[in-house]
């Protein structure tokens, strides 16, 4: 179990994964990505670097689930009752798995994800763990005081299964197995779940298992409840993970004496070692980090990961027992997590062996376009940065929506940096600062945004406040000052009254003088606007003018018997016995009334006798009869007018009709 051997060339290849932004030092960091696993339980996890596949055994469902490096399920191998421990062949072509409930060991083609061979271990054999060592495939089996080790030759066409290889027979049940390419003829076994921990080392180079070291409570730690173990790549030590003590102890294979430890926290339950010696140690911790990464021989974690809470308890998700596995090039670490609803996830941790890096960026909240602004920040890590470290800066704005590289900023000895820029565009401007990382430190990215004030735009429109006659075609000219690229303006007309919406009269580019003209037919008071939507450097602007429009009024008198010029005006003559009728026609608007005013000339001046408002019909017409007993001889005059607001609406400006002059005779 847990030997991840590839060819020497592959094992030495170092491929750095995607950038991870994590807390400084050994502080907690979130998993880089995760994917749900369609499993009911987990027994073991193995990574195939050649095909970039992850194999996860599910004893309860009797299956091996196969995912890609992103956690996407690509295949499932079924009919594997109680499948638990797994081992990958040196060429990554075959995966071996122990079927505890199937009394067999199987071989699976890793490229096709299909079973290719099955070896029966005998009824009641109950294989649990497998490991390759000394040219043979070793498996553990048995329970109830009958734990033992067997082996077979996976390359032989008619390989016979050999049971009872551990003649000492001290294991209560099938022990956990592991081996290392650094000690090709050595096999290590440990009794799972037992207190205290029991370990044994075997020389298997002859094809038979001969104990060379044994320990009951190795190192006198009082540890118990063994969950996992892994042999170091150099074949010198074995690292165990037990419920206690709260660290992963290291023991020499020569005599199982203590040889160091990897300090984690409560309830260690997993360990895996990369071909380069980096150690991943796992713990079942609701409220503390779950995964701890160490450089070989160090006791302080280089990096830690704390899983989020995806369930319904107060504690976060926890690491599954024996749920850690390195990618052979150590570029990724795979971890299986479980929440309180028994939902499992595969968590893909990128660049796990690089020291965590924290990068910050701060920009002023506001800035002025084309004026200098300074971006500041800090870069920190658990390990010191070498002299000459730089961060790169990219600006994203309306002129460079995909981002424009601006250059680099030197990081000072205290981790600070600054960068000065003159943003050419206004609006939201985002600066992205990136530290690319190096062989020992993870990369990091930070961003900061500022609101850049655009340059004010000069925009004018003529004719503001002018009064025009009804139906007048009036030309309005807009003038646009200096802008960057946008030279288009829009001229809109919005007549008074809710029944006529604002209308786009003209849209176009201004001429070389910056002008654009449009003609508006005025029948009502109108708000005329010119709009400039702005560009990346100049601010949008709207200028609105109000112009006023008179109503059209036509009046006449009827019932007179003659007309003549007198007192420099045209007068209409009425018999005293004839009531004059005053006729009015006015441009119509719903609810509109006209003001009728009658005046008499007296003592050298025109004096108002009566002022009344009369409703117009739907055609804008009205006729008013002047009845009564008028005096003979005095001069009179009468007119109809539209009085803004008082005439029932405000869609036109006050307009006075022409006076009609008349006299009564006998």
Number of strands: 54
CATH architectural arrangement of the largest domain:
7 Propeller
- Helix proportion: under 10%
Oligomer description: single chain
Largest sheet data: 7 strands, mixed
Low-pLDDT segments: 1-31
Percent strand equals: over 45%
Mean pLDDT: 93
Total domain modules = 4
How many helical elements?
1
What Rg, in angstroms, do the CA atoms define?
47 Å
Straight-line N-to-C gap:
133 Å
- CATH class bucket of the largest domain: Mainly Beta
Tags for this model:
1% helix, Immunoglobulin-like, 4 domains, 1 helix, mainly beta, disordered N terminus, 7-stranded mixed β-sheet, 5-stranded mixed β-sheet, 666 residues, Methylamine Dehydrogenase, Chain H
Topology:
Elements: H1 8-12, E1 28-29, E2 33-37, E3 45-48, E4 53-58, E5 63-68, E6 73-77, E7 83-88, E8 94-99, E9 104-109, E10 114-120, E11 129-133, E12 136-141, E13 148-152, E14 176-180, E15 183-190, E16 198-203, E17 210-216, E18 224-231, E19 237-244, E20 247-252, E21 258-263, E22 268-273, E23 279-283, E24 291-294, E25 303-305, E26 318-326, E27 332-338, E28 344-350, E29 357-359, E30 366-368, E31 373-381, E32 390-396, E33 404-410, E34 416-421, E35 427-435, E36 444-453, E37 459-461, E38 467-468, E39 472-480, E40 488-495, E41 503-509, E42 515-522, E43 526-532, E44 541-549, E45 553-558, E46 562-566, E47 569-575, E48 581-586, E49 593-602, E50 605-615, E51 621-625, E52 635-642, E53 655-656, E54 660-665
Parallel strand pairs: 1-25, 30-36, 38-44, 47-54
Antiparallel strand pairs: 2-28, 3-4, 4-5, 5-6, 7-8, 8-9, 9-10, 11-12, 12-13, 14-15, 15-16, 16-17, 18-19, 19-20, 20-21, 22-23, 23-24, 24-25, 26-27, 27-28, 29-31, 31-34, 32-33, 32-35, 35-36, 37-39, 39-42, 40-41, 40-43, 43-44, 45-48, 46-47, 48-51, 49-50, 49-52, 52-53, 52-54
Signal peptide: 1-23
Organism: Streptomyces afghaniensis 772
InterPro entries: Ig-like_fold, Quino_amine_DH_bsu, WD40/YVTN_repeat-like_dom_sf
